[in-house]
């Protein structure tokens, strides 16, 4: 007899994950597909949407292969906010432009602020324009790729792309829409059509639903490709960080979710609408909720980069070396701005810095400094959230970075905040599965995923980390001009390198 289960799939920055979960919240099977984003220029981060669908199909067929599970609903989520423009037949016109790690829309942000007013955008949309704003990236395509844009008719994100491929329904969730600044009005919970008509002419913006609402049902065509039963419901889905918050029950007023992944997301649930120009004010993933959110542009991306530089040792070995290094990484301090930075400095031209290096420092020190840099960035965001009117009462950790214990311990030590860690930290795919389960079952996340661990800050390290945090804040301010100048040089260097490559290709063509 087959076991009834829900399928949850999340399209992340560095991998796609799928899980099968039974009615009691037990993960029956999980599967992962690693991928890479494209970085064609400094500040540009893209991905081919075909990869999203191919990996969904591969994950689903892998998970269903034993034939012992009957899928009764499908949940989807994905990184965001992203901008995938297609024609009217849902054919992608270019690779998707990813969320705040892609910083290309600086000029469009300035133009939109001038056109509509920065204060008015913040008031209506809940967030100031930044590299996170999907609306500004639509404007970038319209301005820089006008011939392509003339064919644009629809706007997708990873979750809505999976939904349309599975159901033929063109929808988007309210939370994702609220990150399409300045296209969405967070008070009216609807597209703001006067601005949308000017910023995204010709694009028919999708009908809006809540993440747990049913988008549609698996079509016969999608069933044949994926192996899913035709007719099962597919939820609308949402952005991965908000699905992660659902997966650990971090949706109550006062909760703050910390998502440990390729990037770091912070999602704080507030009692009423709160805005701050250095944070993101959004509607929540659940009806009636509101969030104040932030994010580091790089966190796990830095540790993965270091691991590659070190010759790809196992992560447990690097964590052991980092633990031996001790608090303060033997006098090292890192700014984690390797892809610019999102909140709270909103500086796409910021760059990573490793200060205090000597020839006596080793791999463990560098790895420790990277972990501490994330903690320092989280502390900066927490202080900004609370200064803006947030009220953080509970911190919940989720994501792959919670494994091993050291990273979460460092963040607690640096911030002085305890973190609760649930039994299941697999993240967004589990949250998507939970939302899908609610289409047919009566379930609670507290029963599915109870808290099993609390990471307490260690008081003996508080003074050292207070001093390091002061230096961290000072280092950005004092190095900002140099970092911006180097960012400009990187753009020029890449342009020169591309010109040389083009000449070489032309010469090869003549020689052949």
TrEMBL record:
Natural source organism: Micromonospora parathelypteridis
The keyword Kinase is annotated on this UniProt entry: yes
This protein's name: Xylulokinase
EC number(s) reported in the record: 2.7.1.17
Any single biological process term in GO: D-xylose metabolic process
Family to which the UniProt record says this protein belongs: Belongs to the FGGY kinase family.
A GO term for molecular function: D-xylulokinase activity
Keywords: Carbohydrate metabolism, Kinase, Transferase, Xylose metabolism
Cited Pfam families: FGGY_C, FGGY_N
Domain Carbohydrate kinase FGGY N-terminal: 6-244
Carbohydrate kinase FGGY C-terminal domain span: 257-437
PROSITE patterns found in the cross-reference section: FGGY_KINASES_2
Family matches, as InterPro entries: ATPase_NBD, Carb_kinase_FGGY, Carb_kinase_FGGY_CS, FGGY_C, FGGY_Carb_Kinase, FGGY_N
Tagged with keyword Transferase: yes
